[in-house]
Amino acid sequence: MKSFQATASSNLGITQANSYIYSFATTSAQADSRTNTYTPLSSTDRLGAICSDDSLRIFDPSTLQILPDGLISKVNNGVTSIKRFGTNGQPCSIFVTTGRDGRVCGWDLRSKKRAFELRAPKGQPLSALDGNFELNAVVAGMEYEGIGVGDVSIFGWDVRKPGEIQMTYSESHTDTITELRFIPHAKSSSLLLSASTDGLVNIFDTSIPEEDDALYQVINHHSALHHAGLMDNDLYALGTDEKMSIYAFPDPDPEVTQAPPFVLGDVRETLGCEYVVNVLQAGNKSVIAAGNHSEHWLDLINLNNAADKSSDRRNWEWRADNDNRVRLVGGHGEEVVRDVFVSEGANVVFTCGEDGMVRQWKGQQDGDVEMDGTKSAKRRHEGDKIKKEKRSKRDG
């Protein structure tokens, strides 16, 4: 098994006790907006992190030192999510955050001031967001704070008209939205994937204002969803119970028979882990970030499509043997890793977690691992609704 060692760590200047760091965003150019694949970090690229003290902290990835003007306090009251907002293939200068105060804020990294502010009706709490710079579009989904089935909406704005909500989908989910992701497709540049703790993955065509007509496909994962996204042109769904399935990208033609899902089941049993952070798309490779807080490690594990040719039905298999597994030795100790960013070439890995730290990891030799770069989305658990509450450490 190949190992990465922690070469630097930082709390990014957080002074509040029992704080932790939710997730990353990067200014580096996005090579593939569908899978969050990024170009290599340059000397001018920066990482940003949202923290449980409601701050956005922008830092130099080479040193993990926060920039002199890199602290933006109180970006939201109860910040929940961060995304970059920029042109594909170009570095970005705007990060977007959202939170339980019902606001979506675009932050200009040059001036450290708000570029725009969007508001949900009645200040409804928001838990997930995404943006499509080419469409001038930002979407955000609600966090459901009640018990049982509720009314949950996805809102969409044109950032050129921040005072007007352009889109509201309110009938397709009944619980907290955990993932929103624009997934440009050959048939449409405006497809949006949503996932929720109601167990549904929905795909909408956001160019269509009427929700019934916009709903392109519904997938029932039968498990509260933690993350969902694209993987080698298929769709993956990962539940809060760590059960994972892979679905063929849906064909809108009702006469086309949809392939059955490839069910991987509870990946903790297969991988010997206690939780999964997310699926990372590393160039043309899919990588699972899986952790074990009891044994203090985080592993990056290849998941390959073993079909003989691209026209064959998908045949996904773990490549969990030692030759295809990278261990971040020590992880974040007994605490859970919340997000992972892998620079292209996998010479450097960045993690953040519930210990309130950011860590930088490197292999013992350059090129220790042949993986291209990607970023995972924020860890969201069903019931993870109080920002100060540590996520429970489940038995494996």
By DSSP (H or I, 4+ residues per run), the number of helices equals: 2
Query: What coarse outline follows from CA principal-axis ratios?
Result: globular
> What would you report as the Rg, rounded to the nearest angstrom?
19 Å
**In angstroms, what separates the terminal alpha carbons?**
21 Å
The appropriate CATH architecture of the domain at 16-270 is 7 Propeller
Percentage of residues in helical conformation? under 10%
Low-pLDDT windows of residues: 376-396
Task: Please describe the biggest sheet, giving its number of strands, its sense, and whether it closes into a barrel.
Answer: 10 strands, mixed
Q: So, the CATH homologous superfamily of the domain at 16-270?
A: YVTN repeat-like/Quinoprotein amine dehydrogenase
Question: How would you explain this protein's 3D organization?
Answer:
- With 396 residues, this protein is mainly beta.
- Helix content is 2%, strand content 49%.
- The strands form 7 sheets. Strands 1, 24, 25, 26, 27, 28, 29, 30, 31 and 32 form a 10-stranded mixed beta sheet that branches.
- The model is unreliable at 376-396 (pLDDT under 50).
Task: Map the helices and strands.
Elements: E1 2-10, E2 21-26, E3 30-32, E4 37-38, E5 47-51, E6 56-60, E7 65-72, E8 79-84, E9 94-99, E10 103-108, E11 113-119, E12 126-132, E13 137-142, E14 152-158, E15 165-173, E16 177-182, E17 191-196, E18 200-205, H1 211-214, E19 215-220, E20 225-231, E21 234-239, E22 243-248, E23 262-266, H2 267-271, E24 275-282, E25 285-292, E26 297-305, E27 316-319, E28 325-329, E29 337-342, E30 348-353, E31 358-363, E32 374-375
Parallel strand pairs: 1-28
Antiparallel strand pairs: 1-31, 2-5, 3-4, 5-6, 6-7, 8-9, 9-10, 10-11, 12-13, 13-14, 14-15, 16-17, 17-18, 18-19, 20-21, 21-22, 22-23, 24-25, 25-26, 26-27, 26-28, 29-30, 29-32, 30-31
